[in-house]
Amino acid sequence: MKRIVILISGRGSNMEAIVRQCELERWPAQVVAVIANRPQAAGLRFAHAHGIATVVVDHQAFASRDAFDAALAETIDAQRADLVLLAGFMRILGAGFVRRYEGRMLNIHPSLLPAFPGLHTHRRALEAGCKVSGATVHFVTPDLDHGPIVLQSIVPVLPGDTEAALATRVLATEHRIYPLAVSWFVRGQLRFDGALVRQADGAAQQLLP
Q1: Three-state secondary structure readout of 65-108
Q2: Backbone angles phi and psi of 109, in degrees to 5
Q3: How far apart are CA 201 and CA 48, in angstroms?
Q4: Cβ(181)–Cβ(137) under 8 Å?
Q5: Span 110-123, pLDDT tens digits
Q6: 24-59: per-residue pLDDT in tens?
Q7: φ/ψ of residue 189, rounded to 5
Q8: Which residues are designated catalytic?
Q9: Are strands 53-56 and 132-139 parallel, antiparallel or unpaired?
Q10: In 3D, which of 73, 18, 79, 4 has the Cα closest to residue 46?
Q11: With contact defined as beta carbons under 8 Å apart, do 43 and 72 qualify?
Q12: Is the peptide bond before 148 cis (omega within 30 degrees of 0)?
């Protein structure tokens, strides 16, 4: 039984999607803890209601990023995590922290990486005149939003789209692909092929409109 720890900063809607699918599909896994870096993170209430341990490691209580990273790692390790998931976790993690969980930490990003890493992805996609956008699940590496890609989904950019409209459609597809990618991990269906990630059973690693 794989032990999953999820890191959030706010509502944690992707966390909710993962918890629900884990329960519904009876993965060989359990979400054992949800950790937030903000005491007011709304997702903590959902986790508590589902009987999941909740912990706050407030980044504002630490004098440096290294000190915060150390405290966060100690909290994760206390849960004996097999997999760490970033689900709207709005802190940049140091290289040492990332390497500690190399090969067992996933993130979801609201663009078709390697396009538009970082913030304001929907605005940048619209300004660039992109005809499609989407989301990417990837392994986390020290290079921000550049880890090996596990799964991507494509969302059309529609005439007259606003940032908010595009963000809503992309978030809906995030809720589909993140649980799927996590299920592949906990079932041992992901393989590294050099710098690439393959789905061992040959399942498509892209979700089309």
Answers
A1: HHHHHHHHHHHHHHCCCCEEEECCCCCCCCHHHHHHCCCCEEEE
A2: -125, 135
A3: 35
A4: yes
A5: 999 999 999 999 99
A6: 999 999 999 999 999 999 999 999 999 999 999 999
A7: -100, 10
A8: 109
A9: unpaired
A10: 18
A11: no
A12: no
